[in-house]
Design goal:
With 317 residues, the chain is an alpha/beta fold. It has 8 helices and 20 strands. Strands 1, 2, 5, 6, 15, 16, 17, 18, 19 and 20 form a 10-stranded mixed sheet that branches. It has a 6-stranded mixed sheet with strand order 8-9-11-12-14-13, covered by helices on one side.
């Protein structure tokens, strides 16, 4: 039996997107994109904000961006069909502990599971067990930055690991080894605005796959990277109001459909996206061609062949 998971990268529902929702300007994700995600049995993404109407900005004068979505954002995720989000990233605590705790409450009320953050260290590291199509999927979230957001024994926060320095920690390897069925690890790793995975990210990915992880789906760069084996190094962005880099084109992205057969990844399909301001739709024309060309080149640099089929991109299968 196969299990297909839709995977989206950084999803920011605060700031301009929050205003878009408040003004009722329509869905932030076009119906045709939602239809693609609905082809999968499960949908997992990186939620790059807290969900709350409380809190104060994290007291770091060097931190440039703070993202907080309104409570209605949890329902937006549920309506989109999202089954699980990872909160292990550098924006989960943008508005402090109260806002993070509110995020848990709002997601739970909307029926959306989460990983990568919790009221204490053990909870933050706890995997989520998802079920669909008569099968289970274990999801684990982890972030390599910032260490200040790390959960402690009695402190809410994220599942932090110094992947570039200390490497993949024992708790993460234990979560992978103790799981039954396929395992998805979703790390927030590496710097922003890079065109390909840095050596530390590649090394961590190798350790995870050697430990038996079925699929690694990373994020943080805001730009999609190539695929090598069961590793999707960076999913890119999914929804946001971010400034656009004219070279890296973080306004062009991919929605991934990863199919697992038993304990292995059997195929990856990627659908080109255009990220307008606070609204994501399918990419067409020159935008779609740019994405297809760049993804095929990114995969080729990793020794992987990607091919375009009917407007989508396929690796394996």
């Amino acid at each position: 039996m196969t299990l297909t998971v839709a995977l989206a990268g950084d999803t920011m529902l605060g700031r301009g997107v929050a205003q878009h929702l408040a003004d009722r300007r329509g869905p932030v994700v076009a119906p045709e994109v939602a239809e693609v995600a609905a082809e999968a049995d499960l949908f997992v993404l990186n939620l790059e904000c807290c969900i709350s109407d409380r809190g104060r900005r994290w007291p770091d004068p060097a931190k440039p961006f703070f993202f907080r979505a309104p409570p209605a954002a949890a329902d937006v995720l549920a309506e989109l069909g999202v089954d699980c989000v990872t909160l292990a990233n550098n924006h989960a605590l943008d508005y402090g502990i109260d806002a993070l705790l509110d995020t848990f409450t709002h997601l739970a009320a909307a029926g959306v599971a989460w990983v990568g953050a919790g009221p204490d260290e053990d909870a933050a590291r706890q995997p989520a067990a998802l079920r669909a199509a008569g099968q289970s999927l274990t999801v684990v979230g982890v972030s390599d930055h910032p260490s200040a957001f790390a959960a402690g024994p009695d402190r809410p926060g994220i599942a932090f690991a110094d992947l570039a320095g200390a490497g993949v920690p024992g708790w993460l390897l234990g979560a992978v080894g103790g799981a039954e069925g396929p395992v998805l690890v979703s790390p927030h790793w590496g710097p922003n605005m890079t065109a390909e995975p840095i050596p530390a990210v590649r090394a961590a990915a190798d350790t995870l796959t050697e430990a038996g992880v079925t699929l690694v789906a990373g994020h943080s760069a805001h730009v999609f990277h190539g695929v090598r084996g069961p590793v999707l190094y960076d999913l890119g962005d999914f929804v946001d109001d971010y400034a656009v880099d004219p070279h890296l084109r973080n306004d062009l992205g991919l929605l991934f459909l990863a199919t697992m057969d038993g304990g292995r990844l059997s195929a990856v399909e990627a659908v080109p996206l255009k990220l307008d301001y606070c609204h994501t739709r399918l990419a067409v024309g020159d935008d779609g061609a740019w994405i297809r060309r760049r993804f095929c080149e990114a995969c080729a640099r990793l020794g992987t062949e990607a091919v375009a089929v009917d407007g989508r991109l396929r690796v394996g299968g």
